[in-house]
Known about the structure:
This protein has 259 residues and is an alpha+beta fold. The protein has helices spanning 4-16, 36-48, 76-92, 172-191, 217-227, 247-258; strands at residues 25-33, 52-58, 64-72, 96-103, 122-129, 132-139, 153-160, 196-204, 207-214, 237-242. The chain folds into 2 domains: 4-103, RraB-like (Alpha-Beta Plaits); 122-258, Alpha-Beta Plaits (2-Layer Sandwich). The strands form 2 sheets. Strands 5-6-8-9-7-10 form a 6-stranded antiparallel β-sheet, sandwiched between helices. Helix 1 crosses helix 3 (76-92). The longest helix has 20 residues, at 172-191. The radius of gyration is 23 Å and the shape is elongated. The protein starts with a helix and ends with a helix. The model has no long low-confidence stretch (mean pLDDT 87).
Amino acid sequence: MITFETIEHFYNNLSSNGINCNNNFLYTYCFISDDKINLQELNKELNKNNFSSITIEESEEDYWWLSASRIEKHDAHSLFELNKILYALAEKYNVEYDGFDIGNPDGQSAIERDTYTVPEEFKTGDLINNNLPELVIINTALESFAHKAEFRYFINFTIPYITPDGTGLPSNEDLQNLHDFEISIENNLQKSGINSYYVLRTTNNGIRKFYLAIADKGNAINILEAMKPNTKDLHFTYNITEDENWSMYNEMLIKVATE
């Protein structure tokens, strides 16, 4: 069975390649069987559920495959739930559910990208700051990003945490909470149509800082202010700075490279 984590990773890859996953797409679901009659019976039930463009074809390996398409909108949760239904249908008709694919609703052109494609290639650094360890993670792929001048605004987040020992580093539980918070920030910006790029983060002496590069400053403020009442467990603050030359990023690259 296709796991939720696999589907979530699928959508994360689409997003990182500049595809707005909130749009409608042509979803195609595939089934295979060595018995054409079973697929024909499945076809009847799929028709009742508004699937269109259902085709049954024979492969060169002497089995039959059925593809059924619908234009619809999904996220990882809704597609995972639909997949459970499709697996149940496959079991009912003694066929195999072979997974899904997505395409442009017109069935012809490629899926439109609405951001620049930037891979995430992270480098870690173990530095010392105020006689305490400072953990740095920086996205080195952005070093060759051709649109730095456009994404010249940096949201600088600061989140305090309680350190359980003398290292100034967070507990495993706080590490997970901090990670989840970063993901929620990126997701809320994306859902509101604001493209952001994860630049770097530092963890030192009870303080986590992380930085996102954006092009749209005004709308980002509104979104972040709206999030504050829902993040009472993490008392984050933020400020937005303008840095067309990405000086802070370049300085941290040098520090990590020479540590």
